[in-house]
Automatic annotation (TrEMBL):
UniProt family annotation: Belongs to the TRAFAC class TrmE-Era-EngA-EngB-Septin-like GTPase superfamily. EngA (Der) GTPase family.
EngA-type G domain span: 3-162
Origin species: Williamsoniiplasma lucivorax
Full-protein interval shown: 3 to 164 of 436
Task performed by this protein: GTPase that plays an essential role in the late steps of ribosome biogenesis.
Protein name as annotated: GTPase Der
Subunit details: Associates with the 50S ribosomal subunit.
Chain positions recorded as GTP 1 binding sites: 9-16, 56-60, 118-121
Domain of life (superkingdom): Bacteria
Length: 162
């Protein structure tokens, strides 16, 4: 059975960009019902001969729900379905209260969590990661989904946990 990797995080951190970079096919829309556009949320991925499935939980949306509820449900689905959870943060904005809210939900799982600090477009000082370490979820992997930085390190970390 293929392992399942769920990508979680508050909106706009770059979950879908990371998802698109990791999956083989770059199709981002799965269904187009008039008036309803649903993001494609499942994709097949492969790294170093290991095959796994990726879920973009940001594509799971609920009608008429407040942000907090939606992100909570996305994180809970990830905790149930996934073998490994990738928690995406935004380097440009730093750690926010919304990130801490996601973290509080994730603290309840015993599944492996990998922190991926995205939008790290230019490599710099290692000190940049200390803020994110305060979550207590381990050392982050610094990545840029749009520039392709750190993706190999992240995938190494993922397949190591699968
Ligand atoms: P999501 O809401 O978490 O799925 O975030 P998206 O993947 O839709 O990305 C939100 C915005 O951030 C888009 O405009 C992306 O192009 C941008 N973005 C994603 N990854 C990066 C990155 O590594 N660097 C920069 N500079 N922008 C990024
Ligand atoms: Mg998205």
């Amino acid at each position: 059975k293929k392992g399942i990797v769920a990508i979680v995080g508050r909106p706009n951190v770059g979950k879908s960009s990371l998802f698109n970079r990791v999956i083989r096919e770059k199709k981002s829309i799965v269904e187009d019902i008039p008036g309803v556009t649903r993001d494609r949320i499942y994709g097949d991925a492969e790294w170093l001969t290991r095959e796994f499935m990726v879920i973009d939980t940001g594509g799971i949306t609920l009608k008429d729900q407040v942000f907090a509820k939606e992100v909570k449900i996305q994180a809970e689905i990830a905790m149930q379905e996934a073998d490994v959870i990738v928690f995406v943060l935004n380097f440009k904005e730093g750690l926010t209260n919304e990130d801490k809210m996601v973290a509080r939900i994730l603290y309840k799982t015993h599944k492996p969590i990998i922190l991926a600090v995205n939008k790290y477009d230019k490599k710099g000082s290692e000190n940049d990661m200390f803020e994110f370490m305060s979550l207590g979820l381990g050392n982050p992997i610094m990545i840029s989904s749009t520039h392709g930085i750190g993706i190999g390190d992240l995938l190494d970390g993922i397949v190591h946990q699968l």
